[in-house]
Amino acid sequence: MSKPYTFYGADLSLYSGKLRAYLRFKRIPYVEVAPNFYTFNVTIKRHTGDAVIPVLVSPEGSWMQDTSDIIEAMEARFPNAPVVPPTPVQAFAARLFELWGDEFWLPTAMHARWSHQEENYPLFERDATQSFFPGWPLWISRLIVKQGLAKMLAEFLPVLGVNRDSAPLLDKWIAQQLDALDAHFAVQPFLFGSRPSLGDYGMIGPLYAHLGRDPWPLRNLIEPRKHLHAWVQRMINPPAGEGEFLPDDRLAQTLTPMLRSIFDEMTPFLASGAGELRRVIKNFKPGERLPRFMGQTEYPLAGGRWRQKLLPYTLWMAQRVVDSYRSLPEADAAKVKAWLGTIGGLPILELDLPRLRRAGLRAALAED
Ligand SMILES: N[C@@H](CCC(=O)N[C@@H](CS)C(=O)NCC(=O)O)C(=O)O
Hints:
The chain is an alpha+beta fold. It has helices spanning 14-25, 37-48, 67-77, 88-104, 106-114, 117-132, 138-159, 167-187, 198-213, 215-222, 226-236, 256-280, 312-326, 330-342; strands at 5-8, 30-33, 55-57, 63-65, 294-301, 304-310, 356-359, 362-365.
């Protein structure tokens, strides 16, 4: 067996769940290491520019950060059972679902964990103290974790628009989406057939650590939906065999409700964010890292309106999706466009995105 990769991650971390599920399905040899306080804040920061997980280090010692970039790099190295479908419509849809799970579900993930912290906090505290502060006196590590939590609650929930007044709308959206996913997984093992795709990996991020493992959401949101619960378990413990994507570039009808959210809610969110960035772009120099959060976006959600700050990084993710369309051979691009036309999805191709590059956890304006 070849030398293993080192995977810096943690059970409590959303994007670690995404990468872990991927590595397991691909049978890529890895050793998971919980980064301690020093590794996280010093070593990882030195190599990637930010204190962040997950990070993957190759046996040759190259450090990789950002699950989308990591999966892309690993797909090139491990071409068995590709997770991006070989046909254009399924491939484009898989990228849309990755973006949707990675970015559009963030308010949901944070709400599910932090709006129910009386039930969720003990597990979080245990994970965080054991992962980041092994060997430290418990009272000190508990105090540091609690301070980190206070900062998170003060900053992150308001950034994402989650508060007492907005929560009922988000709860309505969550119930709609989870019901739709449950109905889909009643008829298909994964989003596009019997093989998990990049889209499934985007979705397992929020649906593992924050919804599928924290006790309140697990008990109230996931366990009552048994097909969705079974999918979460399949994602974590992938079945033997490679499975396959549906033939003829077909999409199951049961994906339609989720695609409605992607086109009717997420696309306006991205358009609102792009407009916001365009308005302030002259204040930044080419190459400059943009703030992690900025401005305000507003978009339709579950029949109401949602307001949250823009994460310019989200627009970098959207740029990847649009770029994947632009790099298609003409005949494949025509198929994707025709499909988008039938489902009211064309505006995603017309987003006015400023050119961005990724810099660690953030986006920066591209140099050219
Ligand atoms: N888009 C990145 C996100 C990584 C990320 O946000 N990781 C979280 C843990 S799940 C983190 O380390 N956050 C540190 C911070 O927000 O400062 C990816 O896909 O890897």
